[in-house]
Design brief:
The complex is a heterodimer. Chain A is an alpha+beta fold. Chain A has four domains: 44 residues, no CATH class; 66 residues, Phosphorylase Kinase, domain 1 (2-Layer Sandwich), CATH 3.30.200.210; 31 residues, no CATH class; 51 residues, no CATH class. Chain A is built from five helices and nine strands. In chain A, helix 1 crosses helix 2. Chain B is globular and about 75 Å long. Chain B folds into four domains: 194 residues, Dimethylsulfoxide Reductase, domain 2 (3-Layer(aba) Sandwich); 120 residues, no CATH class; 136 residues, Rossmann fold; 141 residues, Barwin-like endoglucanases (Beta Barrel). The longest helix of chain B has 19 residues. By secondary structure, chain B is of the alpha/beta class. In chain B, helix 3 packs across helix 7. Classes of the chains: A alpha+beta, B alpha/beta. The interface between A and B is large, with 117 and 166 residues.
């Protein structure tokens, strides 16, 4: 960001010099309005939200800038993501991946609707959320009712479902993982792995 | 990490091994550079590739992938032989003085107790010799031939500099130059840190490898010290949190999953509550029942009563000896013994080992649910024959794949709140910045909808064993999409009698009057609010603790084992780097890893362990109390230490048609996988900028091998293993030096991950090549040090 400010400042100051608006600074003109104007242009109307980079586990804090969230019927859009200068970990810096997080969030390849692939089909078909959830719940129940083991051969209560596996990803937050745990133990699933263990 | 990113700036020596932070954790790597700049710290890199971290190191030593235990074992031998270890620390803070029972030994690659039929150890000879009260006997002079220290000395006497060079492929001089720098931290006023990553965890002997690192740091007196520790640079934003929250055979907070032989809560508590092994051991796991009952009470609420063991019966119980870790359950899926599969944000076809087997396994399912930001290889597995035609020409035609697949669009990190735990164990809260695109939904809503719908079906229609489902609490204010703040408060825990959030795990009880979804996180959301969202930047100790920034587990402690940074009287080994100080009544500084008002002499420094001290000799791992060098399951040489027992005898292996292992006659080169700074795992191939910067898959080929094969830079090469194949342009490089191993020249080939058959840029999945071989303690696959062949395509 400093780079872009100084580049803008340079252009601005060149323009100022051309119009002869020289003031008394070390450079012979006042940079302050130019710097302020450059900063304003970038984030003046955005809402800033504190977040954390989802990539590696250095845990860089980021500030996400969104626009459009103050008008009715307008969905806010992420316009800029930058390092959080307050963080003792990254002190405002980000790596080449972190600096392009906006492209990850606002990305034409993102999935935007539930998809369904029937057995034997060669393509996805859109499906409504309610229908997808209904079907999934039905599959889970069918499998569970048929294969759940309440007691083992020795008559011990084991309450387990070994015919369904569940895995969790690396950006599932603690709270998501906790809820996944509740789903897991509610169903009785034993095979439960996470990216964390590969 | 025992310490944390900001703490690395306190060190005198950084050993980077099994990681490449300049490339993969660039922002964290700044603290290494700070230590170099401000403390004149030395950076030592030991790696098969002269990587970007090596490029700025003071010392680089090449090595063969999969031989790290030999290298570290060599360091242990080097420091013992030259008395460079910190003797007073070792006597006070480790089990070096403990006596081991008569009969323990190691011969021809096996420790005593090996059962060749069951392929596992019977551990009775690995136990301590005890006195009448059941406590371990010790010899503080360390001279008894059966004390851990003497056994350790004997075990590593074989790991001479020449032996290291012969196994690892560096020269003995290179090894000794590095050893001199690393072992210089054995002085009380010097600290050394280790930064590692998946280069250490992805082996068929990885847990023992980390154990070796811990042993080395204990001998040098570097555990608990600012600028010290064993520090895992974790590779994803919340895999630390995911581990803490329980996966595989753990409940939240590293509570063990019960087995079928633990029928009642009493049996469970008895089995998993250790007895102290020394009179001064605090033995903190003696609180197991409080943590477990508080968890059960969080899960089962009003249904959890003292009479019914707080709903313990509802927790599923695996058969004795059954293993449901990654390799095992995918093997079962592959054998047609799984019907359903639910994946929340993970991509096994890309990131599991042996991708052809992953594909085949998914094709045998009845149904599959994938919740994702992008269409991944796993979601589209049924189309692999078309999308990955070059690599899976014989994969089943979609028409013959009966797996019913659901692909549900999820919010990304920026579109939901919640907490990520970084490598430093810091729980950092984030806030939702924007709504998800289109009809995508936050994960909590997707989980809740499925959970509530299944539960509704059981309520309406009945069915098999509805109780575990019906009794699970889900009393959130908006049940169909629980607020993560509400969930976080439940995870922290509440005192039900007082109606208040608990302020720490010390307040948890086993009478049903407290709940806590994860005892380790107790203190993260107290009556004073969300501690994870704290933004204080002050650092009064100057040690980079930043105790008011976010919140770290456990108890906001920033340096684990910080009581070990002081001597028996509580005086810091290094007056300038003392994390906690005893003022006669209490400890100040970092949150003590100790009772805050207990005298220095009251307890051993390692409060979680029944020994009260750290373990150089450990009965916990399956393949031996001391780490031993074993070759990867595929190796170009037989283990020079014991040729008949070459690789880990306890390694997790499978024997199906797709689980083939190769031999060096057919696959002469050692391969390893690595990451590039422009990409993150298998995600950023969906992002334009990373894909532009690194658009193409490639293979790093040593210059001498390229010459032998007539390969020029940019030529298309084919790399094949017993499992599969990848093709890409060769990057001919001097970064990977040919090595002399056991009298033979060994070439290594480096292959980046990141590509696949889904995304803006496409390329082969490197896991087409990797074996279904696993560490027997953790179930982590061996992605480093497998065998391949390489030909011009």
């Amino acid at each position: 960001m400093n780079d872009s400010v100084s580049r803008r400042t340079f252009f601005r100051s060149s323009a100022l010099r051309a119009t002869g608006a020289l003031t008394a600074t070390g450079l012979g003109f006042d940079l302050r309005p130019a710097v302020a104007a450059a900063r304003e242009l970038k984030i003046a109307r955005t809402t800033q939200t504190h977040s954390v980079c989802p990539y590696c586990a250095v845990g860089c804090s980021v500030v996400i800038h969104t626009l459009g969230d103050k008008a009715r019927n307008v969905r806010p859009t992420v316009v800029h993501v930058e390092g959080d200068p307050d963080s003792p970990v990254n002190r405002g810096t980000l790596c080449s991946k972190g600096i392009s997080l906006k492209e990850f969030i606002v990305n034409g390849e993102r999935l935007t609707r539930p998809l369904y692939r029937a057995p034997g089909a060669a393509e996805w078909k859109p499906i409504a959320w309610d229908e997808a959830v209904d079907k999934i719940a039905r599959r889970i129940k069918e499998t569970r009712d048929r294969t759940f083991v309440e007691k083992d051969e020795q008559g011990r209560v084991v309450n387990r479902l070994t015919s369904v596996a569940m895995i969790g990803g690396c950006t599932d937050t603690n709270e998501i993982n906790y809820l996944l745990g509740k789903l897991r133990y509610g169903l009785g699933i034993i095979a439960y792995e996470n990216q964390a263990r590969l | 990490m025992t310490n944390g990113w900001t703490d690395v700036a306190n060190t005198d020596v950084v050993l980077v091994m099994g990681g490449n932070p300049a490339e993969n954790h660039p922002v964290g790597f700044r603290f290494v550079m700070e230590a170099r700049r401000h403390r004149n710290a030395k950076l030592v890199v030991v790696d098969p590739r002269f990587n970007r971290t090596a490029a700025v190191a003071d010392l680089y030593v090449p090595m063969r992938s999969g031989t790290d235990i030999a290298f570290l074992g060599g360091l242990i031998h080097y420091m013992l032989e030259r008395k460079l270890y910190q003797e007073e620390y070792v006597k006070l803070h480790t089990n070096a003085p403990f006596l081991v029972k008569e009969g323990f030994g190691f011969e021809d690659g096996y420790f005593t107790g090996w059962d060749s039929e069951k392929k596992r150890y019977e551990k009775s000879t690995w136990q301590y010799e005890t006195d009448g009260s059941g406590f371990a006997k010790v010899d503080q002079t360390l001279e008894n031939p059966r004390c851990v220290f003497q056994l350790l000395k004997k075990h590593y006497s074989r790991y001479t500099s020449q032996a290291v060079a012969n196994i690892c492929g560096c020269t003995a001089e290179e090894f000794e130059r590095a050893a001199a720098v690393i072992c210089s931290t054995g002085k009380p006023d010097r600290s050394g840190t280790i930064l590692y990553a998946l280069g250490w965890t992805q082996h068929s002997h990885s847990v023992q490898l980390i154990h070796t690192a811990a042993m080395m740091q204990l001998l040098l007196g570097n555990i608990g010290m600012p600028g010290g520790g064993v520090n895992a640079q974790r590779g994803h934003s919340n895999i630390q949190g995911a581990t803490d929250m329980g996966a595989w055979n753990y409940l939240p907070g590293y509570l063990k999953m019960p087995g079928a032989n633990h029928q009642t809560l009493e049996e469970y508590v008895k089995a998993f509550t250790p007895k102290p092994i020394r009179p001064n051991a605090m033995n903190y796991w003696s609180n197991t029942s409080k943590f477990m009952v508080s968890l059960l009470k969080a899960y089962y609420g009003k249904s959890a009563t003292r009479e019914n063991g707080f709903g313990y019966v509802n927790i599923p119980k695996a058969a004795e000896g059954a293993d449901y870790s990654w390799g095992h359950f995918f093997d079962q899926m592959h054998n047609g013994r799984m019907e359903g599969f639910i994946s929340f944000g993970m991509n096994p076809v890309a990131n599991g080992p042996n991708s052809p087997k992953m594909l085949d396994a998914l094709a045998k399912l009845k149904w599959m649910v994938v919740v994702e930001n992008f269409e991944t290889e796993t979601a589209a597995f049924w189309n692999a024959r078309k999308l990955g035609a070059k690599y899976y020409p014989n994969f089943v035609d979609p028409a013959n794949i009966q797996t019913e697949a659901f692909l549900l669009p999820a919010a990304c990190f920026a579109e939901k709140d919640g907490c990520f735990v970084n490598s430093s164990r810091w729980l950092q809260w984030k806030y939702a910045a924007a709504p998800p695109p289109g009809d995508a939904k936050p994960d909590q809503e997707i989980i809740a909808r499925i959970f509530l719908r299944v539960r509704e079906l059981y309520r309406q229609e009945g069915g098999k064993a509805p109780k575990p489902l019906l009794e699970m609490t889900w009393d959130y204010a908006t049940p169909h999409s629980p607020s993560l703040e509400e969930v976080a408060r439940e995870v922290n825990g509440r005192d039900l009698t007082a109606g208040k959030q608990v302020s720490g795990f010390g307040e948890l009880k086993d009478d049903g009057s407290t709940i806590s979804g994860n005892w380790l996180y107790s203190g993260s959301w107290t009556e004073t609010g969300n501690q994870m969202a704290r933004r204080g930047q002050e650092d009064p100790t100057g040690l980079g603790l930043y105790s008011n920034w976010s919140w770290s587990w456990p108890a906001n402690r920033r340096i684990l084992y910080n009581r070990a940074a002081e001597n028996a009287e509580g005086k810091g080994w290094d007056p300038l780097r003392t994390p906690i100080r005893w003022d006669g009544e209490r400890w100040t500084g970092d949150v003590p890893d100790y009772k805050k008002d207990a005298k220095p002499t009251d307890y051993g420094a390692f409060i979680m362990l029944p020994e009260g001290v750290a373990k150089l000799f450990s009965q916990d791992l399956v393949e031996g109390p001391f780490p031993e060098h074993y070759e990867p399951v595929e190796s170009p040489v037989a283990n020079p230490l014991h040729r008949e027992v070459s690789s880990n005898p306890a390694a997790g292996l499978f024997h199906g048609a797709l689980d083939k292992l190769g031999v060096s006659k057919d696959y002469p080169y050692v391969a390893l996988t690595f990451r590039l700074t422009e990409h993150f795992h298998y995600w950023t191939k969906h992002v334009a900028s990373g894909s532009e910067l690194q658009s193409n898959f490639f293979v790093e080929v040593p210059e001498a091998l390229a010459r032998e094969k007539g390969i020029q830079g940019g030529d298309l090469v084919r790399v094949s293993s017993a499992r599969g194949m990848v093709e890409g342009p060769a990057l001919v490089t001097r970064r990977i030096r040919p090595l002399k191993v056991d009298g033979k020249t060994v070439y290594q080939v480096g292959i980046p991950i990141h590509w696949g058959f889904a995304g803006r840029v496409k390329g082969p999945l490197v896991n087409n090549l990797t074996p279904s071989a696993f560490d027997p303690n953790s179930g982590t696959p061996e992605y480093k040090g497998f065998l391949v062949n390489l030909e011009k395509a």
